[in-house]
Design a protein that fits this description.
Length: about 220
């Protein structure tokens, strides 16, 4: 039985899991869901009720970074795992303080005594750190993407979309080029393909091997 991936198309965590599965070319059964109507089968496997959730053999993997590592441990043809220790530090920064500020910026009404613009600026201060790197390189650590790029760029995309006019007006040309190249890449288009919502009678969709045929997320020509 092939692994089962529960996913929600627009979730940045699910996006990065699909990116790694596509890069690795691992064949999984994709089950597209909506978060307001979660399948019972998924909840039984992972009661916390967040996506992505990967069911492989008798194991449940319900953290997106763990799913990325699982896929790349099977096959890492684009060598995403080859990055300096600074790359892991960057991933932790985006997963931690950046994502915290992003959530309070995007969903300010869910928090008490939060100034959305202050949270936006806190996240912006973090993003300014990589502007010099992207002036020298196409990707964060060289001419090819690594996990440092692919484990973080979906969250930065989410940040950019909160107020696109404000984001586009900022003085970070290299960051905007990096993000735009990714969003125009064949890989991103492939992992954002729309699928019908899954239910018990819905046919399964094969994902991973076919997505890999789109090639690496490369610099836009």
């Amino acid at each position: 039985m092939k692994p089962i991936l529960y996913s929600f198309r627009r979730c940045p965590y699910a996006m990065r899991a699909r990116l790694a599965i596509a890069s690795a070319g691992v064949d999984v059964e994709l089950r597209e869901i909506i978060l307001r109507d979660k399948p019972q089968h998924m909840l039984e496997a992972s009661p916390k009720g967040t996506v992505p959730v990967l069911l492989v053999d008798n194991k449940v993997i319900d953290e997106s970074r763990d799913i990325m590592d699982w896929a790349l441990a099977i096959n890492d043809p684009e060598e995403w795992s080859h990055m300096p220790s600074e790359g892991e530090e960057w991933i932790r920064t985006i997963e931690g303080p950046f994502k915290s500020a992003l959530d309070r910026y995007k969903y300010a009404s869910r928090y008490q005594d939060i100034d959305a613009s202050e949270q936006r600026d806190l996240a912006a201060d973090i993003l300014h750190q990589i502007e010099p790197k992207l002036e020298k390189n196409i990707w964060l650590f060289g001419p090819k993407p690594s996990l440092a790029d692919m484990a973080t760029i979906t969250f930065i995309r989410q940040y950019a979309m909160v107020d696109k006019a404000w984001f586009d007006a900022q003085e970070w040309p290299n960051l905007k080029r990096w993000l735009e190249d990714f969003m125009k890449s064949e890989r991103f288009v492939a992992i954002m393909q729309k699928y019908e919502l899954w239910n018990q009678t819905q046919k399964s969709y094969s994902f991973g091997q076919t997505s890999n045929s789109q090639g690496p997320a490369s610099h836009a020509q």
